[in-house]
Amino acid sequence: MSELNLFSCENLLKRYPSGNFELGPINLKLAAGEITGVVGENGNGKTTLLRIIAGELSHDSGTMKYFGDNPVEFLTWENIHSRVAYIPQRIPKWYGYLRTNLQFQASVLGIKRQEANRQINELIDVLGLNDYADLKWSEISTGYRLRFQLAKMLIGNPELLVLDEPIANLDINAQAKFLNDLRIIATGPNRNVSVILSSQQLHEIENVSDNVVFLRAGKMVFSGDVKKLGEEREFNEFEVTTTLGMDKLKEMHPEVEFEQTGKMIYVKTDLKLSAEDFITSILSAGGKITYFRDISASTRKLFKR
């Protein structure tokens, strides 16, 4: 991974006195070639953080630097916005043919026709849009609308890509394709880009991200390498849906802490009981498992219960 930070902040703070909400302090570094996922419950500051990074919202205190060690005060917002691409939760509707919109975006950015066509053709190819480029907005699915918005934002080769809940309205296959696109973009040999995105889809975000930020009530509960989640844990934690009832599970594992919400059972145990051993115990007792997830090394365990 690159050592170049395309964005960094220290003790970043944003206050909303009227709503009694405060984001921060936030300490964060976004490196070229990396994807950072921002997770947390709704209303905990994810959109606020992304809008500040994208230059859509001012902060109250703390320091921010862009593109290396350039303090935000020494850069013009025009310069920052020309190098940062922001995709909000609600994508504005386009009119006319999609390829024409991409050409118009290149023209707005002052990119000459030959280079514009090269970039557009490359993006259409990389994002799998060849069959849709000459269609209108109303003729394509939500997933492909998002891909075209991504293509539009990537024209001009921005260095920082900020996406707010981009996969919220996509089916599971479209989510996987879009996140794979982001990985290709972030690690592409001809690009110098860092990606930060928010989402409620924890499993998918953790799988694609190099780093994860977890926000609760505006506070940064965790920030770091996704591989280090749960590294120093004292417990194993699982989620399971099974045909065995709580009484039977407690009888089988009297030392384990169980908590049930609807059909989902939360399991908290010491490190001696592995996920494999717990699953085996259920199956050996004649139970069936319809859902299981080991959340010992996931931000899922940080959510309130």
Tell me what you see in this structure:
It is built from nine helices and 14 strands. The chain has two domains: 5-226, Rossmann fold; 235-302, Alpha-Beta Plaits. The chain is globular, with a radius of gyration of 22 Å. Helix 3 (98-108) crosses helix 4. The mean pLDDT is 89. The chain is an alpha/beta fold and 305 residues long. Strands 6-7-8-3-9-10 form a six-stranded mixed β-sheet, sandwiched between helices. Strands 2-1-4-5 form a four-stranded antiparallel β-sheet, covered by helices on one side. The protein has helices at residues 46-53, 77-83, 98-108, 113-126, 142-154, 172-187, 202-208, 246-252, 275-284, and strands spanning 5-16, 21-31, 35-39, 61-66, 70-71, 84-87, 160-164, 194-198, 211-216, 219-225, 235-242, 257-261, 264-270, 289-294.
How would you sum up the global shape? globular
Q: Secondary-structure element sequence?
A: EEEHEEHEHHHEHEHEEEHEEHE
Q: Kindly name the structural category.
A: alpha/beta
The CATH topology name of the largest domain reads Rossmann fold
The unreliable regions are none
Count of extended strands: 14
| Biggest β-sheet: strands ordered side by side in the sheet | 6-7-8-3-9-10
Q: Note the beta-strand portion.
A: 25-35%
Question: What is the CATH homologous superfamily assignment of the largest domain?
Answer: P-loop containing nucleotide triphosphate hydrolases
Helix content: 25-40%
CATH architecture of the largest domain, please?
Answer: 3-Layer(aba) Sandwich
Largest sheet: 6 strands, mixed
Please, how many helices?
9
Radius of gyration equals: 22 Å
